[in-house]
Design a protein that fits this description.
This protein has 18 helices and 6 strands. By secondary structure, it is mainly alpha-helical. It has a two-stranded antiparallel sheet.
């Protein structure tokens, strides 16, 4: 009894302390207001919104496993003779970075498991961000008022690539050292200042003495801090601007529909967090990745056969292999266009286009309204075609990053394989764009036929004359609503009178190219009026006069 009373007293005191502490915080900070808003926030219930959560939770796994690995890893490039437990490498000279990587793999309890979980989580993190960005692009979720969040997301993707490359290079094995040799060549290809930048980054002539410690600081401190800050900004903007949602009964451009944050979303996302943890742990325990002991320590006079980087930087390797050997001698200095263009100019152009695309599309359409309904990709055929063309462009570069392996597997010469991929890099995206656009228009035609004829039942009847016909049933109200609820901009037109600037003409041509092709859906005037009302922005926005 005394023990039970003591526990009750402690529980009462803890409750009073929690209440008084909360009251003290609430008196000084807007705790109640923020908690009330967060707990009532609606989260759309659709699988595509889980992609961002996969990226977030894999980053949490990266932080936890990274802290553990930091306790045992030494980034020093000082060399010594290996005397560890891995017998095939005993007596070999290697840096402390490689020695401690082997020690983590073979001597630290659970070290290899944590290393592999960390590596798998890094791959999943970058992949989840990439697919999440594609989801936002294809559904138009980057439009006003979410342009800033799109910029934050693309910046996170760039930082994730940098973080992945830095972590990939830390073990100082033969494979990662080959990647660093490529990075040194890329830095050195910068006209005029490239040599000086390379000497600064590597602490002298390659491989130098400082690159691994510097990459270590970037990997565990600088980039993770920036990623944490940007994820915080991203989540704050998501809460403030609310989620987009797919068209459905009761879902308009003026509301946010979904289960509340507590308890529905909290319970679901906690379970999803544990699932992500479990899958990554399963991969780390069963699927071997980056067995650095097979490669050996890095030596500048050796290179690993069939050496390809992780997939997220494979496109740079492919661009290097496809670029013709163009060089120019200017005043005794060699400008290596064959390295500078594919590895610095190309990524710079690609990411600049990604950053600016929301503002470009807004300029083309002249649409400055708020958008909270997701587009069905089929309803924006030009945008969808551009996205698929970009994916195909990247895929060709990724295949080119392993053109030697592909050529060996298919028994063709490396020169033939390189020329095939050079042609495909230009032709394949154009074909993908045209095919995707036609497919989107075909799907719109299918939607039109479903609205007019109904859904196929699969039952075929035969008349007395021998004619075969298939029966149809009317679409459900939910399916009809989803098809009709779309907002297709009309192309801009030139003014009937007055001078027209070249900029306005270009804008009109691009607008026609974007939105000229679409399939009109059968709808009554009353239905069109309701659609216009439900896709209207939350509040009218005065558009500035175009000059």
């Amino acid at each position: 009894m005394p023990l039970r009373k003591r526990k009750a007293q402690l529980k009462t005191r803890a409750g009073k302390a929690a209440v008084s502490g909360y009251g003290a915080m609430d008196a000084r900070l807007p705790v109640s207001e923020l908690a009330r808003q967060l707990l009532r926030k609606a989260f759309p219930d659709h699988w595509s919104f889980l992609l961002g959560e996969i990226a977030l939770y894999s980053f949490v796994v990266l932080l936890l496993t990274g802290v553990y690995l930091t306790l045992f890893f030494d980034p020093s490039m000082m060399e010594s003779v290996y005397t560890g437990s891995y017998a095939p490498l005993q007596g070999v000279r290697m840096t402390q970075a490689y020695t401690t990587t082997l020690a983590i793999s073979f001597d630290v309890r659970g070290g290899l498991l944590i290393r592999q979980i960390h590596h798998w989580a890094a791959l999943v993190f970058v992949a989840a961000i990439a697919v999440h960005l594609l989801r936002i692009f294809f559904t138009g979720a980057f439009r006003r008022p979410r342009e800033a969040n799109w910029v934050v997301g693309v910046t996170l993707f760039v930082l994730a690539l940098l973080e992945g490359f830095a972590g990939y290079s830390l073990p100082d094995d033969l494979l990662s050292g080959t990647g660093l040799r490529t990075a040194a060549t890329i830095v050195g290809s910068i006209p005029v200042v490239g040599t000086y930048v390379e000497l600064f980054v590597f602490g002298g002539q390659f491989p130098g003495d400082d690159v691994i410690p510097r990459l270590y600081a970037v990997h565990i401190l600088l980039v993770p801090g920036l990623i944490v800050a940007l994820i915080t900004v991203h989540l704050m903007l998501v809460v403030y601007l609310k989620h987009t949602h797919w068209a459905g009964r009761g879902k308009t451009n003026k509301n946010a529909v979904g289960p509340p944050a507590f308890p529905h979303f909290t319970a679901k996302t906690t379970g999803f967090l544990l699932m992500v943890f479990g899958v990554l742990a399963l991969l780390g325990g069963l699927a071997q990745i980056n067995p650095v002991w097979n490669y050996g320590p890095y030596r500048a006079d050796q290179v690993s056969g069939n050496a390809q980087p992780d997939w997220y930087v494979g496109f740079l390797e492919g661009a290097l292999r496809l670029m013709p050997p163009w060089e120019t001698d200017i005043a005794g200095h060699t400008v290596m266009w064959n390295v500078f263009i594919p590895t610095l100019v190309l990524p710079g152009v690609v990411f600049t286009l990604l950053f600016l695309y929301p503002f470009f599309e807004q300029w083309v359409t002249g649409d400055r309204r708020e958008h909270h309904l997701c587009d069905r990709p089929r309803n924006r055929p030009t945008r969808t075609g551009l996205g698929v063309a970009a994916i195909v462009f990247y895929a060709v570069l990724l295949v080119a990053g392993g053109n030697d392996v592909v050529a060996f597997s298919f028994r063709v010469s490396i020169e033939v394989m390189t020329w095939i991929l050079r042609i495909a890099l230009i032709v394949a995206p154009l074909l993908a764009f045209a095919l995707t656009k036609r497919l989107c228009l075909a799907l719109q035609m299918r939607d039109r036929r479903r609205l007019t004829e109904g859904e196929e039942t699969g039952q075929v009847t035969q008349s007395v004359n021998g004619d075969l016909s298939e029966s149809h049933r009317a679409l459900s109200p939910t399916a009809r609503y989803r098809i009709l609820m779309r907002d297709v901009p009309t192309p801009l037109e030139l003014p009937a009178e007055g001078p027209v600037s070249r900029r306005r003409r270009l804008r009109t041509v691009l607008s026609g190219w974007y939105y000229r092709d679409f399939v009109e859906l059968p709808a009554t005037d009353e239905q069109r009026s309701r659609i216009a009302e439900r896709t209207a922005p939350p509040e009218p926005v005065r558009e500035p006069e175009d000059r």
